Amino acid sequence: MNRSVLVSGGNRGIGLAIAQSFVKAGDRVAVTYRTGEPPDGLLGVHCDLSRPETIESAFDEAERVNGPVEVLVANAGVSRDMLLLQMEDQDFLDVVDTNLTGAFRMARRAAGGMLGARWGRLIFVSSAVALMGAAGQANYAASKAGLVGFARSLAWELGSRNITSNVVTPGAIETDMVSGVSQARREAVIQMTPLGRTGTPEDVAGVVQFLASEAAGFVTGAVIPVSGGFAMGH
């Protein structure tokens, strides 16, 4: 492999594991980050998905170094959990703007180059919560569920140009976000997971690698759970 790959939110957790897996495969990889410092060994481009101008500058820098983006992994996301009656408009809008509108902005920017090349891979990292729902996560679940309809619409729009569009829905994965969940909630999710354990960021990265490969050239519009069976059947 020697493709130009851009992973949003690739500076930690699932995004970092995905980015590192592409590096190991021989690809040229850039990752976006909003705060902190980019990880060593990866091209870091600053980006705030709620600010369109930073998306444009992030793509410009990634493409200046690595060439036109051929694989986009829209992974970056935020959560702001609270029950419905406590949730303010801004709590809902901010999460949707980052998780869903941000993915739209990135896909729109990447699609132009992919159309010209008549090849591309769009991969959206959603969540098992998008399919099942969860109390206190109406904003997060709505934003992540929206990625499914968005990706499947792109599968129709772009498929004739050999551009695939797919969604991965992780379950409980050992990341900072999951570590902040209460022990009671963690145990409840594990009890609802047939494999009886949490997953690793590398579990998700392996599936993303498949979707980006030539082996998945006839896979588009798919929603693939990486959840140990949690929320299966949805």
Furnish the topology, listing elements before pairings:
Blueprint: E1 4-7, H1 13-24, E2 28-33, E3 43-46, H2 52-66, E4 71-74, H3 89-117, E5 120-125, H4 128-132, H5 138-158, E6 163-170, H6 176-179, H7 183-191, H8 201-212, E7 223-226
Parallel strand pairs: 1-2, 1-4, 2-3, 4-5, 5-6, 6-7
Helix pairs in contact: 1-8, 2-3, 3-5
What does this structure look like?
- It is a single chain.
- The chain has helices spanning 13-24, 52-66, 89-117, 128-132, 138-158, 176-179, 183-191, 201-212; strands at 4-7, 28-33, 43-46, 71-74, 120-125, 163-170, 223-226.
- It is of the alpha/beta class and 234 residues long.
- Strands 3-2-1-4-5-6-7 form a 7-stranded parallel beta sheet, sandwiched between helices.
- Strand 1, helix 1 and strand 2 form a beta-alpha-beta unit.
- Helix 1 crosses helix 8 (201-212), helix 2 (52-66) runs parallel beside helix 3 (89-117) and helix 3 (89-117) packs parallel to helix 5 (138-158).
- The protein is globular and about 50 Å long.
